[in-house]
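Q: For a teaching session next week I want to show students how multiple molecules come together into a single three-dimensional assembly. I've collected the sequence lines for a complex. Could you give me the predicted structure tokens for the whole thing so I can convert them for display?
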Amino acid sequence: MDPVRNPFAPGAGTPPPELAGRDELLAAAQVAIERVRLGRPAKSLLMVGLRGVGKTVLLDRMRATAEAAGIETLRLEAPERRSLPALLAPELRVTLLRLSRGDQARDLAQRGLRALAGFARALKVKYADIEVGIDLEPEAGLADNGDLEQDLPVLLQAVGAAARGAGTAVVLFIDELQYVPEEQLAALITALHRCAQRQLPITLVGAGLPQLRGQTGRAKSYAERLFEFPEVGPLDATAATRAIAKPIRDQGARIDPGAVRRIVAETHGHPYFLQEWGKHAWDSAEDSPITESDVELASATAVAALDSSFFRVRLDRLTPLERRYLRAMAALGPGPHRSGDIATCMSRTVTSLAPTRNQLIAKGMVWSPAHGDTAFTVPLFDAFMRRTMPGEDWRD
Ligand SMILES: Nc1ncnc2c1ncn2[C@@H]1O[C@H](COP(=O)(O)OP(=O)(O)OP(=O)(O)O)[C@@H](O)[C@H]1O
Ligand SMILES: [Mg+2]
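A: Of course. Below is the structure for the complete assembly, covering every listed component.
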């Protein structure tokens, strides 16, 4: 069928043609944000899930809804190497400048800009990567101790006060939160806690890999009470069916029920894989309706597409030993696996492999669902590892 009209959208953060099965989560975010605007207690949302389940897409959709309702938003993605204060400072500046435009909150927003100036200057010593325009001179003693754990709460409270003055709320949307180092995460949690205690209209909607939950708990023991951790997972059969069938229908074409069932089964309802299979099923079919044998053809090309993109990019960032570790996990099956079993598989000791495992966690490749267990963060990665490293030479 005409590839130009192919509705499916495999990609990182690419909005799907049909955002299926997430209505409850979207509604919960909207309620939390509206409550914060009114100064009512609401937990911050931290969405956790494996790679490719649709966390980024959800974050962006929630943000668009909030903006349409007149909420001030800022959006960041924590990369592996930049500091949180460096990412936050320029975004907070834009937010404060916007808040300073209206008459109601001008003074409060300007105070926020002074706090930001002090914050950036004092923390520059520790976080050399902070680069932010200075609009107003700092005020001595305002967010300028040079200690993130003290200064970030003061700065966010100033932002929250300005938001309240303007009759709105500020929502921080932060993606890939698991990459924020623990002491910076701790400062962010303290800051949000302080703002919540003062009923200031500022909150966080975050997303990250499943290890985020443990990281926040370690950073601050009260984090469990401050945050809600909705799990973003594969779609159930009804939602997965809709994610495939509706976009095809919207193009005036059809797909056989058996073909849809086949796609749902092969993808396990995983959102990224659904997009990939949908795309290839459309392209494989000569005519509408798309049949089960079209899907059979599509499966081979869909797997090849995943191998060369979704799976591949992750492997390219690893050292040979890290790859061998993942290959050993794959030899044991989908997982999770015990560290001892993985080590045995490689004829090594658990202790000698601990740094490798830690690196793989830091790179977001694996996580630990329970003490001593290791699991892939990318669904179906075990099968990919066996395809890409066939043979047995990884063992020695
Ligand atoms: N509810 C959904 N229904 C159908 N497709 C979806 C849904 N959510 C996301 N997708 C599709 O899944 C793919 C992955 O989405 P996204 O990049 O948001 O995932 P992610 O969880 O942020 O992944 P990563 O952890 O790798 O950043 C995209 O192609 C997107 O269009
Ligand atoms: Mg993402």
